[in-house]
Every structure is written in structure tokens, then in C-alpha cells.
Amino acid sequence: QVSHALKSLARKEEWKHRLQQSEELHDILLKAANRYVAGEKRSDGLAIARKLQAKGYGISLENIGENTKLLAQCREAKMEFDQLIEDVGAIAPGQTVSFDLSHIGLSYQFDTAYGHLIELAEKANEHEVTLMISMEESTKTDQILAVYRQAAELYSNIGITLQAHLFRTPDDLRKLVQLPGKIRIVKGAYQEPSHLAMERSDYLNNRYLELVDHLVSTNHPVSVATHDQKLLEEMERRQFLQSTDVEIEMLYGIQPSQLKLFKEKGYQTRVYLTYGHEWFLYLCHRLAEYPENIYTALIDIINP
Ligand code: FAD
């Protein structure tokens, strides 16, 4: 219930308005967000990305946003990603830019999202950057996969995220391994109806392992995007992490010491880092998926 409340709170326009109106409220909540978000500007994201890259981590950078409804805003978002691709490419080759398709056009029109994705893929190719498409609510899964499939047939530098908690995912995976793009496996962040998705459980963890096993055994590039220590240890025991096709990817600010340990063991590691004006939405997502973070947020506000 707490998770649900936080997720719907994040989307309320009223909150955006309040944050714009009150500098004090904006600054207080930003202190809590700073643990997970680089800042409001692209330069904030790039500054932290450079430091992480110098320490040996791969980077996934995202300008936070979703459900853009107006064409002009979809174009604006796409132009921001154009610039981000250039800047991320300048840090080092092999970095990643991540985004929601609904940020660049899917909530407006299928063709807008597809057209923007193709333009971004072209630019990313020039700058040796990989694009990773995030996975959103199950109501959008078919459309996201349709846009991805069409684009990934033309560009091998586009990857896709799949949610292990959805019952449909093993079928989706079987079809998607035909395409060259990297597949990021996550447990799933959205509250879904029980006939579509399973809860956090051993059953879900086993499903996660089966999906990764399938990818590793077909030598497909995969990002294991989880903070679950037990699950990561099991992947290490099964020799998944040792594969050169596998990288471990975690969200900035969540259990960084754990990712550091994996990096020190010699595994490929990547930090998913975000920036942007929609940081409140992102903060609510992080609190919702792990409500204990509410206490951490309070401490960050009192003692930043
Ligand atoms: P859980 O079982 O949820 O957590 C395991 C343990 O990890 C917890 O016990 C806790 O110790 C720690 N932990 C987990 N979350 C937090 C947190 N917020 N704060 C502090 N500790 C925490 N989801 C999507 O639906 N679509 C996407 O496109 C998507 N992209 C992602 C990309 C990356 C790189 C990552 C890492 C996650 C992404 N997610 C996405 C979120 C994902 O679905 C999960 O909601 C999130 O990773 C938490 O699940 P978990 O695998 O860490 O396991």
C-alpha cells in the first residue's frame, strides 16, 4: 500500500506545481533525492558519470521522464538525448544511454517513438554508445516490444529491458534472442495485477535465474540488473557472472559497496545514473520499491 501510494503521488501534477511554487520544499526534497539522482542538469549527470568511469564502472545515463503527451515535448526530450549521446560518447566508448519510450513519443504516437528511436540509434552509432530501452507498465509492453523489434532489426546498438515478474517474459525472451541487442533483466518495478505478474519470492528469483541462464547459454549480451545479494551470489556460483557477455548493473545510490565488491572481483559492472527535473518521480519510485528508504530520506534531509 505504501508503494502504491508513493507511485501515484509521484505522478500527481499537484506535486510538480508545489515544487515549482516552494523553493524551500524543492530544496528539502532534493536533499533526499540526491542519494539517487545526480542533479537537475545534464552536466550534473556527466560530472558523476566521469568519476564513476574513472573508477572502472560502465555508465548508463538517463534523463528522467515518462508519458510525454505533447509532440513538442517529445521532440524536446529527444533533442536532450541527442546531446546526451554526444556527451556520454565523449567520456569513453561503450557507455549506455537509457530511456523510457514513453518519454520520447510512445504516449503521443507509435510512429513518433519509432522515428525518434531510429534517429537516436543513428547518433549513438556515430558515438559508440548503446541505447537501452526501459520497460514500463504492462499496458505498454506490447507497444514497447513492437517499437524495439522494428528498430533492433536495423540497429544492433539498441537493447531492451525485460521484467522477470511478468508471466509473459519467457515467451518474449525466446523471440528477442533472435535480435542482437543486449537484454537487461530486472525483477520489475511496477505494481501489476496478479494474473499478469508474480510477487517477490523464491519463485521469482528462480524465474530470474532461468532467464539469465537462457541468455548466457546462447551467448547473448545481458545485463543482470538487480541489487539482490543472494541472487547475485547464485549467479556467481553458476558461473553466469564470469561470462564476458554478462554485466552487473545497479542503480546509483543503492548498495554501492556491493557493486564495488563485484568490480574488485573482476566482473563487468555498470552504474545506472539519472538526472533531470523529474527527480521527484524517480525519488518516489526508489522509496516505493523499498519503503525502508523513507527513513534514509528523512536522515538525508536532516543531515545531508
Ligand atoms: P528486490 O528483491 O526488490 O530487492 C533485493 C534487495 O536489494 C532488497 O532486500 C534490498 O536490500 C535491496 N534493494 C532493492 N531495491 C532497493 C532500493 N530502492 N533501495 C535500497 N535497497 C534496495 N524496473 C522496471 O520495471 N523497468 C525497468 O526498465 C527497470 N530498469 C532498471 C534498470 C536497472 C539498472 C536496475 C538496477 C533496476 C531497474 N528496474 C526497472 C527496477 C527493478 O525492476 C527493481 O524494481 C529494482 O531493481 C529492485 O529489485 P531488485 O532486483 O534489486 O530486488
Strand content bin: 5-15%
Low-confidence stretches: none
Structural class of the secondary elements?
A: alpha/beta
The CATH topology is TIM Barrel
In this entry the ligands are:
flavin-adenine dinucleotide
Please compute the radius of gyration using only Cα atoms. 18 Å
Q: Please give the CATH architecture.
A: Alpha-Beta Barrel
Gap between N and C termini: 28 Å
What is the subunit organization of this protein?
single chain
Q: Number of helical runs?
A: 14
| Shape assignment | globular
Q: How would you spell out the order of helices and strands?
A: HHHHEHEHHEHEHEHEHEHEHH
Protein name: proline dehydrogenase
GO molecular function: nucleotide binding; proline dehydrogenase activity
Pfam family, one: Pro_dh
GO biological process, one term: L-proline catabolic process to L-glutamate
What does it look like?
The protein has a single domain (38-275), classed as Alpha-Beta Barrel (TIM Barrel). The chain contains 14 helices and eight strands. It has helices at 2-11, 13-21, 23-33, 42-54, 71-91, 101-104, 110-126, 141-152, 169-176, 202-217, 229-237, 256-264, 279-289, 293-302; strands at 58-63, 96-99, 130-133, 158-163, 183-186, 222-224, 246-251, 269-275. It has an eight-stranded parallel β-barrel with strand order 1-2-3-4-5-6-7-8, surrounded by seven helices. The relative contact order is 0.15. The mean pLDDT is 94. The structure holds flavin-adenine dinucleotide. Residues 134-135, 161, 163, 186-190, 200, 225-228, 249-251, 254-255, 272, 286, 289-290, 293 line the site of flavin-adenine dinucleotide. This is proline dehydrogenase. Keywords: FAD, Flavoprotein, Nucleotide-binding, Oxidoreductase, Proline metabolism. It is an enzyme of class 1 (oxidoreductase). One of its GO terms (biological process) is L-proline catabolic process to L-glutamate.
